[in-house]
Design goal:
There is one protein chain. This protein has 140 residues and is mainly alpha-helical. The protein has one domain: Chromosomal Replication Initiator Protein Dnaa, Chain: A (Orthogonal Bundle), CATH 1.10.1750. 84% of the residues lie in helices and 0% in strands. It contains 7 helices and no strands. The longest helix has 33 residues. It starts with a helix and ends with a helix. 21% of the residues are buried.
């Protein structure tokens, strides 16, 4: 802990020397703001996915494997990657899964065929969720 704190302070001091105190504060505030915005976006994606698939957030993140939950994770993973720019490790943390599972879900999404009825339904749900997330994010 002590070593990490020392490194943080050294890096911060070097940054202040290079950029100045005002610019350093600005950069930190912007990065915090982006982080908060991204958290809101992630939350909106999760909430709207649960609403459209009619499952609870707890079920989405920790439930047993059922087709509705699996489809919800496929759609949410794709949205989290595309809209919130999360990587597979970050998405895996949200769903309490390993990275390889998220990779499988993302590949499944990429292979959806709009000409197949069930795939088309899933793509339509994703589009509806995306639209709701965009509408909800404007309200915040």
């Amino acid at each position: 802990m002590h070593n990490t704190s020392t490194i943080l302070i050294e890096v911060l001091l070097k940054t202040i020397d290079k950029m100045g105190i005002k610019k350093t504060i600005q950069v930190l505030q912007i990065s915090q703001s982006l982080s908060d915005e991204n958290k809101k976006l992630v939350n909106l994606i999760i909430v709207n996915t649960c609403k459209h698939f009619q499952i609870s957030e707890l079920s989405l993140k920790q439930g047993r494997s059922k087709i509705n939950r699996t489809n919800a994770i496929i759609v949410a993973s794709a949205l989290l990657k595309r809209m919130a720019n999360l990587n597979q490790v970050q998405i895996a943390e949200i769903f309490n899964k390993d990275r390889s599972s998220i990779n499988k879900y993302l590949r499944k999404f990429d292979t959806l065929d709009p000409n197949f009825f069930l795939d088309s339904e899933l793509l339509n749900k994703m589009d509806a969720i995306r639209q709701d997330v965009l509408k909800d994010s404007e309200k915040i």
